[in-house]
Structures are given as C-alpha cells and as structure tokens.
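User: Sequence in, structure out. Go.
Assistant: Echoing your sequence, followed by the structure tokens.
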Amino acid sequence: MQLELIGPHPFARDEQDRQITRIGTLFPPYSTLWTQAPGVHALQRLGFIERVNQERAAKALPPLTLEEEEHLTAESVDLIFEADHILIRPDPDHMDLACLADELLQNLVSKRQVKYLSVADHRVREAIKHRGEYWRLSAIPRSREAKQRMVLGSRVGIHGLPIYFYNRLTGTRWLTCQEFENLGKLDDAGLAQHLQEITDHALLRNRLGRPELDFFASDLRRFGARQFAGASYAQLSPEQLRAKFEELREHFRSAVHEAFRTDDCHNKAWCQRIFATLFLEGNEAQTEQILSGLSPEFHMQIEWLPGGRFEEGEFLFDSIFDEAASHPEDDELQLLCDPRAKGIIFNLIREYGDIDYVNVGRVPESLSLDRPQKQGRRGVYLAELRARSEHAIIKRFIRLQKWGVWERLDEGKDLLQAIKESDDYTDYCLDRRLGCRQLGMNLTRRVSLRHLNETYGGTAARFQGTAIRTVYFEREYMHGIATDKLALEKYARPGYGPKLASLLGRAAATNLIVGRALDSGKRPVFDDGDEVVHEGEDGLPAEVMVCDHTGAFGEYKLPLETFAAYYARSVNLRDKVVPDSQGFATAYLDAFRDQFLHIQGDYRKRRRAFDTLFKQCNYDPAGSFAYRWECVLRRLDQTNPYALIEAIRQHIWVLNREPAKPASA
C-alpha cells in the first residue's frame, strides 16, 4: 500500500539547513501522512479533516459527521521527526494501528529510520517484544555531548520561531525563561504574535492529557498558564504590549531559580534538568532494564539487533535484511544486520522448536571498567525468548570463543591447522571451567557449546569468502548486580557490608587459587565485573556467583603471596563506603581463610581425585592445561594459609592505620 504525503518530507531542510517540519500525523485508513504546519498534532488533524470534507464536497457528499470526525481522529498516529529518524508515539490501546503506520512509513524511509516511543507502557513493550523488534525502540544516548545535541535538536516552533523544547513522549513544548526574554527583541507584531501563541496553547491539553505548552523550571504556583488567560495581544497598543510583556517577563524570571534562567549546556544543573524534563519524564531511559529485567550495568549498553518474528508457527526474518542485501556498501546497515545474530536465532529455534518470539542484542564493549580486550575476538550477545513449553521468559548470555578459526587464519595458519588449534582452544576453555568447579568456584550450572557458520573476511587473502565455523558458549543469564557496580546506598543497609564481605572473601580465596589473571599472568582479575551478587528476600547478599572465569589458570607459577596487595583491593575500595570498614575487613579475611583451608583440606583428603582429573589430556610444560593444573595443585598444597592471610592483612589500609590520638584537654 502506497503512502500519500501531504506537506514536506519528514527530513526536508530549508535554505538555512533547518528541518522544515518536526511533527506529522499519519492516517492509516487513508494511507496519508500529513506534515504541513502548524506544529501541533491537533491542528494537523483538523487540517486533514478539512481536506477530507473538501474532497467529499467535490463529490457532492455531505461533510463528515461529528462522530465520523472523532473516529478519524482516533485512528490517527502521532509522529515526531528527528534529523534522520521518524518516531512513532503509539496509542497503547491500538498497537495494531501503530504497526500499520510503521509499515506505511517504510514506503517513505528505511525501516531502520522508524522507531517507537513509550516503551515504559507494558502494552507497547509486549507488542514490540512479540515482533522480535527490540531494536526498533528509541534509545537515549549515554555521552554528555550526545545528550546536549539531543536537547538542542528538540527545538520546535508552532506558528512562529522555534522557541520551544519538545518532549517527544508527552507532546508538551517547554518554554524556557531565556527564550521568553528573547521575545523582547522582536518587533511589536512579532512579539504580539508569539505572546498570543503562548496564550492559546498554554491553556490546551493534547490527546494524552498533557499541556500543549508549559514553562520550564517555573514554580507554577507563581507563574503559569493562568498569567496569560484572557489576553488579546493584537488589540494592545505598542506601549501596552511592551508593558504587559515586561510584567510577564518579571513574573517568569522570579518564578525560576537563577541556575535555570539561562539556557547553557555547559551549566550542569540546567543541562540535567532540561534533559530530565524532555526525555526522562516518560521513562524512555533504561530501556534494557524495562524490557528484560537486566542488571544495572547493562543499562544503555545493549545494541538490540534485527531478527524476525513468528507467524502461525513460521519464522520470518526481519525485512531489514532484504534492504541490507540490496545495499552492501552501507556499512552502518551491514553492522545492524549482524549475521551472527541470525545464526544464534537459528540455533535457538533448533533447540526449542516452539518459540513465540526471540530478541537478540549485542554488547559492543566490555562492561568491566578496567579490562579492554586487545587481542582475539570480543563477541558478546544476549538473547531473550519465549517458548510455549516454558513458563518463564528464557534469557541466554552468549560469548564467542576468543580464539577461533577466523583468528588463526589471520595469523597465517592454513585452514586445517586453524581448525585444529581452534578445537584445542575449545577444549582448553572447557577444561578450565571444570578445573574451576573442582576447586570450588561458584559458577553457573551449565554452559552449552554451539557453532555458527560464517564467511571468512579477515586478513588472509587466500581464504577470503571461505565458509568457516565459529564456536560460542551459551549459558543462562545471571540475575543480580556485579560486585563492582553496587549502588552506594546498599552499603548503608544494616548487615549488608558484613554479608558482602564474607561472600567476597570466599570468592577471593578460590579466585586466587585458580590464578585468574590476564596479560600472560601479569594482571590479576577479581571483583571487576564477573562476580555477581544475588540478594535474598531480606535485601541482603545471599550469594556471589562467577558469571565468567576469564583468565583462570592464567598465572600458575608464582607464590600466592605475590598477589596479596591485589586481594586487599576489594576491602580498600570500600574503605570509605561501608559504615564499619574494620568489621568489613575482618569478615573478608575470616571468610577468605575458611574457604582456603576448606579447599586445601579437600585436596589433601582426595588427592587422587584432583591429581588424575586431567591425566588423559596433553601434558606440555610450555603451558598445556594439564601442566597448569598440576602447578596450581602443587602451589595450593605448599601454601601456608596463615602467612598468606597475614600478607593480605598488611595491605589493608583500615587494619594498618595508627589509632587517632585523643584531643588534648
């Protein structure tokens, strides 16, 4: 079905490179998009009704009845135009109408340029989720610069100058104190026009029940729409007009705190207030948490990707993939249409078979604050699906194998050698996991090994275009909060600190024993994103689980006391956060000691079970896993736990401070 456009194209710009129109109204039953001014949806609907009545009159038909006009209005869809995106503000009770509008808009612009608002409403969420289109949801940028651009890009006009900041979720236009004061620079006619525009729209409510126009940061008890009621500025003399404006200006200014009287993106207070007013009021932020119940560290970090949806049991890939196939030169589109996401979806369908929907997202950067990956592959994905045979939503965490066939081909290996080394590394990863479990690390219950088919496009020219297999590991998503990202207010809860300290101490002992370290064993890894806290019904820590054992057995030669300073770090980082830092340190060391003694005792009691666990594996002093396992067990057996605890204690600040001297009389 073709879309008729009445007015400028949503992305059209004028001679000054300004966007001509910022809103539009789409009428799906008429396949018509109305973008003509003025910049208020209600007036656009009235304009379209007038056009329909003119067309009916030309056919000698009576005009629409009031009931028919109301029906036409109810079946319209509000749109907001950004520089390169069209945002649909759906009516949650009529998501079918919004989806129809979406399909019509794709006749005008690329599907990737059409997004949905109002994700906070569960009806919108469910509709998008069941279409497998999380990627269609409008996101809030993270960087300060991007937020500033978003604020400045929200300026709109109604009939006159673009003096308002537009909340795309609620439809309210916000007038700041500075923009109002700037009206005094206009001539008399311009000033009267804009004052009348403010008067007319400040008293109106839109179809969402929100004000069409409001006053930013104003104490509404002192200044608001009532100050404009009943005025007719065109009938005032120039002197009366200016006097009235000065009166309004002084009222507005006095009702606004001085920090918000000037529009200044470099003023942190103003910037945060305007951003919250325009974008956070409708809960448009934290999309990932709202949708999937993910942990706080995932907020705004996931790039949701196109996948597909099921219709009558049949899976249909998103139509955006057809667009990507037609435009191989479009790098942004190719990145969006991730073929690995397609492979992951295929595997999930094969495994479950009765899926209602599936959404896949990509985590582009490491969530660990101090762990950039410089070599190997970083590919992390999240999948959320609903299987009819399961009661709960299924979430899966997916990590591509760091060293696979692709990476070995890049190193100059031939295909057979690359496959062999990739398989060997897969075994090494799985052996590490078994070794960690044997030594008491609290890991996820199970990990599944999966494969993707990829077309090689790396640096080895002779293998370009070769079909290869890529390994990934899939596990259940772990609910909870990473230990290094706990909110500060949690530590203030009675009992929270001691419980966390004990759990961290236990986890630290196991972590040190298995030698988790990066950069060829030079940099220990602990308490920086892989350890997840599960809280009990009382809100206190109940368990710390390790979601990823990255770097395990990376260091297997040096005495454990070498890393004493690093394992004091978990206490020192919280030195000024926990109410009782000395008690926290003591609980941490006590739990560390008990866990270390337990693991050491378990090994000495069942030596054969530990020593023979990897006997069947390749043994190579150059660094095979069987050799590393032997070294780690020998080191565990030879370590004096009390000397190790004392070495860590010497690096804990709170336990080594001199007591404060009493004040002199």
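User: And one key feature?
Assistant: Confidence is low (pLDDT under 50) at residues 282-292, 295-300.
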